[in-house]
Protein backbone atom coordinates (compact mmCIF):
# COMPACT_ATOMS: atom_id res chain seq x y z
CA UNK A 1 0.00 0.00 0.00
CA UNK A 2 1.39 3.38 -1.02
CA UNK A 3 1.21 6.29 1.43
CA UNK A 4 0.23 9.65 -0.08
CA UNK A 5 2.77 12.46 0.19
CA UNK A 6 0.11 15.19 0.29
CA UNK A 7 -3.51 14.97 1.39
CA UNK A 8 -6.38 17.01 2.80
CA UNK A 9 -7.23 16.22 6.45
CA UNK A 10 -9.61 17.63 9.09
CA UNK A 11 -10.97 21.13 8.53
CA UNK A 12 -9.52 21.26 4.99
CA UNK A 13 -5.91 21.34 6.21
CA UNK A 14 -3.11 20.33 3.84
CA UNK A 15 -0.97 17.52 5.28
CA UNK A 16 2.52 16.87 3.87
CA UNK A 17 4.59 13.74 4.53
CA UNK A 18 7.76 14.34 6.55
CA UNK A 19 9.96 13.01 3.75
CA UNK A 20 8.58 15.57 1.30
CA UNK A 21 8.93 18.31 3.92
CA UNK A 22 12.57 17.38 4.58
CA UNK A 23 13.30 17.27 0.85
CA UNK A 24 11.98 20.79 0.43
CA UNK A 25 14.02 22.02 3.38
CA UNK A 26 17.18 20.46 2.01
CA UNK A 27 16.63 22.15 -1.37
CA UNK A 28 16.28 25.52 0.37
CA UNK A 29 19.31 24.84 2.58
CA UNK A 30 21.43 24.33 -0.53
CA UNK A 31 20.64 27.87 -1.69
CA UNK A 32 23.37 29.13 0.60
CA UNK A 33 24.83 26.80 3.24
CA UNK A 34 27.33 29.34 4.55
CA UNK A 35 24.98 32.33 4.81
CA UNK A 36 21.47 31.28 5.87
CA UNK A 37 20.35 34.91 5.67
CA UNK A 38 20.56 34.51 1.89
CA UNK A 39 18.08 31.60 1.84
CA UNK A 40 14.46 32.12 0.86
CA UNK A 41 13.04 30.27 3.88
CA UNK A 42 14.31 29.93 7.44
CA UNK A 43 12.46 27.26 9.45
CA UNK A 44 15.01 26.41 12.20
CA UNK A 45 14.19 28.64 15.23
CA UNK A 46 17.83 28.74 16.33
CA UNK A 47 19.13 29.74 12.90
CA UNK A 48 16.35 32.28 12.38
CA UNK A 49 16.91 33.93 15.75
CA UNK A 50 20.64 34.24 15.06
CA UNK A 51 20.01 35.74 11.61
CA UNK A 52 17.71 38.39 13.08
CA UNK A 53 19.87 39.27 16.09
CA UNK A 54 23.05 39.43 13.98
CA UNK A 55 21.27 41.54 11.35
CA UNK A 56 22.19 39.03 8.64
CA UNK A 57 18.79 38.92 6.93
CA UNK A 58 18.54 39.92 3.26
CA UNK A 59 15.86 40.61 0.68
CA UNK A 60 16.11 36.93 -0.35
CA UNK A 61 14.16 35.84 2.75
CA UNK A 62 10.47 35.18 2.13
CA UNK A 63 9.50 33.02 5.13
CA UNK A 64 10.54 33.00 8.80
CA UNK A 65 9.86 30.69 11.72
CA UNK A 66 10.97 32.94 14.58
CA UNK A 67 10.86 31.63 18.14
CA UNK A 68 12.13 33.49 21.18
CA UNK A 69 13.31 31.29 24.08
CA UNK A 70 12.70 34.25 26.39
CA UNK A 71 9.07 35.39 26.29
CA UNK A 72 10.16 38.98 26.96
CA UNK A 73 12.53 39.10 23.98
CA UNK A 74 11.88 42.19 21.82
CA UNK A 75 12.22 42.38 18.04
CA UNK A 76 12.43 45.86 16.55
CA UNK A 77 11.46 47.09 13.11
CA UNK A 78 15.15 47.79 12.38
CA UNK A 79 15.98 44.09 12.84
CA UNK A 80 13.32 42.99 10.36
CA UNK A 81 13.24 45.94 7.93
CA UNK A 82 15.80 44.35 5.57
CA UNK A 83 13.42 41.46 4.85
CA UNK A 84 11.46 43.43 2.28
CA UNK A 85 10.10 40.31 0.52
CA UNK A 86 8.83 38.60 3.67
CA UNK A 87 5.54 36.83 2.92
CA UNK A 88 5.25 34.31 5.80
CA UNK A 89 6.01 34.94 9.48
CA UNK A 90 5.50 32.62 12.44
CA UNK A 91 6.34 34.47 15.64
CA UNK A 92 6.35 32.40 18.82
CA UNK A 93 7.10 34.24 22.04
CA UNK A 94 8.81 37.58 22.31
CA UNK A 95 7.22 40.80 21.10
CA UNK A 96 7.40 43.40 18.36
CA UNK A 97 8.44 46.87 19.42
CA UNK A 98 8.62 50.10 17.42
CA UNK A 99 7.34 51.65 14.21
CA UNK A 100 6.67 48.98 11.56
CA UNK A 101 5.39 51.18 8.74
CA UNK A 102 6.21 49.53 5.37
CA UNK A 103 8.01 46.67 7.16
CA UNK A 104 5.36 44.04 6.37
CA UNK A 105 4.14 45.43 3.05
CA UNK A 106 4.26 41.99 1.35
CA UNK A 107 3.30 39.84 4.33
CA UNK A 108 0.46 37.43 3.49
CA UNK A 109 0.53 34.93 6.38
CA UNK A 110 1.09 35.82 10.04
CA UNK A 111 0.95 33.33 12.94
CA UNK A 112 1.45 35.14 16.24
CA UNK A 113 1.75 33.01 19.39
CA UNK A 114 1.84 34.12 23.01
CA UNK A 115 2.09 37.85 22.56
CA UNK A 116 2.71 39.80 25.83
CA UNK A 117 -0.18 41.79 27.26
CA UNK A 118 1.30 45.20 26.38
CA UNK A 119 1.01 46.14 22.70
CA UNK A 120 4.06 48.22 21.71
CA UNK A 121 3.73 48.39 17.93
CA UNK A 122 2.88 51.44 15.81
CA UNK A 123 1.96 51.59 12.11
CA UNK A 124 1.54 47.84 11.76
CA UNK A 125 0.34 47.94 8.15
CA UNK A 126 -0.91 44.55 7.00
CA UNK A 127 -2.60 45.53 3.75
CA UNK A 128 -1.74 42.33 1.88
CA UNK A 129 -2.34 39.91 4.74
CA UNK A 130 -4.52 36.93 3.78
CA UNK A 131 -4.19 34.59 6.79
CA UNK A 132 -3.90 35.67 10.44
CA UNK A 133 -3.64 33.33 13.42
CA UNK A 134 -3.55 34.67 16.97
CA UNK A 135 -2.92 31.99 19.60
CA UNK A 136 -2.59 32.00 23.38
CA UNK A 137 -2.61 35.79 23.49
CA UNK A 138 -3.68 38.27 26.16
CA UNK A 139 -6.22 40.01 23.98
CA UNK A 140 -9.62 41.43 24.84
CA UNK A 141 -12.27 43.30 22.89
CA UNK A 142 -10.37 46.52 23.70
CA UNK A 143 -6.97 45.22 22.60
CA UNK A 144 -5.07 47.96 20.71
CA UNK A 145 -4.00 45.52 18.04
CA UNK A 146 -7.52 45.35 16.55
CA UNK A 147 -7.13 48.82 15.03
CA UNK A 148 -3.96 47.72 13.22
CA UNK A 149 -5.44 44.41 12.06
CA UNK A 150 -8.36 46.24 10.45
CA UNK A 151 -5.88 47.49 7.85
CA UNK A 152 -5.89 43.95 6.43
CA UNK A 153 -8.61 44.55 3.85
CA UNK A 154 -7.68 41.35 1.95
CA UNK A 155 -7.90 39.04 4.98
CA UNK A 156 -9.58 35.72 4.14
CA UNK A 157 -8.81 33.60 7.22
CA UNK A 158 -8.95 34.82 10.84
CA UNK A 159 -8.00 32.14 13.37
CA UNK A 160 -8.17 33.02 17.07
CA UNK A 161 -7.17 30.08 19.27
CA UNK A 162 -6.71 29.72 23.03
CA UNK A 163 -7.19 33.42 23.83
CA UNK A 164 -8.69 32.98 27.29
CA UNK A 165 -9.30 36.68 28.04
CA UNK A 166 -11.35 37.37 24.92
CA UNK A 167 -15.04 37.69 25.80
CA UNK A 168 -16.37 39.35 22.66
CA UNK A 169 -15.22 39.41 19.04
CA UNK A 170 -15.33 43.08 17.96
CA UNK A 171 -16.70 44.62 14.78
CA UNK A 172 -15.63 42.61 11.73
CA UNK A 173 -17.22 44.69 8.99
CA UNK A 174 -13.88 45.92 7.60
CA UNK A 175 -12.96 42.32 6.65
CA UNK A 176 -15.25 42.22 3.62
CA UNK A 177 -13.18 39.44 2.00
CA UNK A 178 -13.20 37.14 5.06
CA UNK A 179 -14.07 33.53 4.17
CA UNK A 180 -13.17 31.57 7.32
CA UNK A 181 -13.57 32.63 10.96
CA UNK A 182 -12.10 30.14 13.43
CA UNK A 183 -12.63 30.71 17.16
CA UNK A 184 -11.25 27.79 19.13
CA UNK A 185 -10.76 27.18 22.86
CA UNK A 186 -11.57 30.79 23.81
CA UNK A 187 -13.26 29.69 27.01
CA UNK A 188 -14.60 33.11 28.06
CA UNK A 189 -15.94 34.10 24.67
CA UNK A 190 -19.68 34.80 24.93
CA UNK A 191 -20.48 36.89 21.86
CA UNK A 192 -19.56 37.53 18.23
CA UNK A 193 -20.36 41.02 16.97
CA UNK A 194 -23.47 41.17 14.78
CA UNK A 195 -21.33 42.64 11.98
CA UNK A 196 -20.58 39.04 11.03
CA UNK A 197 -23.85 39.23 9.12
CA UNK A 198 -22.28 41.76 6.76
CA UNK A 199 -19.52 39.36 5.66
CA UNK A 200 -20.89 38.17 2.33
CA UNK A 201 -17.83 36.01 1.56
CA UNK A 202 -17.92 34.11 4.88
CA UNK A 203 -18.52 30.39 4.31
CA UNK A 204 -17.05 28.77 7.44
CA UNK A 205 -17.44 29.48 11.14
CA UNK A 206 -15.93 27.32 13.87
CA UNK A 207 -16.36 27.84 17.62
CA UNK A 208 -14.98 24.60 19.07
CA UNK A 209 -14.19 24.87 22.77
CA UNK A 210 -15.93 28.23 23.20
CA UNK A 211 -18.21 26.78 25.86
CA UNK A 212 -19.37 30.12 27.28
CA UNK A 213 -21.20 31.07 24.09
CA UNK A 214 -24.98 30.89 24.40
CA UNK A 215 -26.07 31.94 20.93
CA UNK A 216 -24.85 32.72 17.46
CA UNK A 217 -25.45 36.00 15.65
CA UNK A 218 -28.32 35.69 13.20
CA UNK A 219 -28.29 36.72 9.56
CA UNK A 220 -24.96 35.16 8.58
CA UNK A 221 -24.54 33.61 5.15
CA UNK A 222 -22.64 30.41 5.88
CA UNK A 223 -22.04 27.36 3.71
CA UNK A 224 -20.55 25.32 6.52
CA UNK A 225 -20.95 25.70 10.26
CA UNK A 226 -18.09 23.97 12.08
CA UNK A 227 -19.49 23.30 15.54
CA UNK A 228 -18.12 20.02 16.79
CA UNK A 229 -18.62 20.55 20.54
CA UNK A 230 -21.55 22.65 21.71
CA UNK A 231 -24.23 22.57 24.37
CA UNK A 232 -27.48 21.36 22.86
CA UNK A 233 -29.40 24.35 24.25
CA UNK A 234 -27.33 26.73 22.13
CA UNK A 235 -29.68 29.03 20.24
CA UNK A 236 -29.02 28.54 16.52
CA UNK A 237 -31.51 30.13 14.18
CA UNK A 238 -30.90 28.01 11.08
CA UNK A 239 -33.76 29.71 9.32
CA UNK A 240 -31.63 32.84 8.96
CA UNK A 241 -28.51 30.99 7.82
CA UNK A 242 -29.67 31.00 4.22
CA UNK A 243 -26.63 29.32 2.67
CA UNK A 244 -26.15 26.63 5.31
CA UNK A 245 -25.49 23.23 3.73
CA UNK A 246 -24.00 21.27 6.65
CA UNK A 247 -24.91 21.05 10.30
CA UNK A 248 -22.87 18.74 12.58
CA UNK A 249 -24.62 15.80 14.19
CA UNK A 250 -23.82 17.20 17.67
CA UNK A 251 -26.56 19.84 17.30
CA UNK A 252 -28.95 18.31 14.77
CA UNK A 253 -31.21 16.78 17.39
Automatic annotation (TrEMBL):
Query: Encoded by which gene?
Result: LOC115737426
The domain of life is Eukaryota
Which organism is this entry from? Rhodamnia argentea
Q: Which named protein is this?
A: Disease resistance protein L6-like
One of its GO biological process terms is:
defense response
Xref: InterPro entries: Disease_R_plants, LRR_dom_sf
Amino acid sequence: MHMPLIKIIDHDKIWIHNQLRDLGRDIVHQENRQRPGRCSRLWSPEVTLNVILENEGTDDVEALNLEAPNQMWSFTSEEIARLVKLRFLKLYGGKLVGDFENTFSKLRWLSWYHRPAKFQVTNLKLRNLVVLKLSGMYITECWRGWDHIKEAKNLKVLNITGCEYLTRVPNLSTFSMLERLILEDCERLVEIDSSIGELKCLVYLEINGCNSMEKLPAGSSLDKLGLARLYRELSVSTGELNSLIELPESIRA
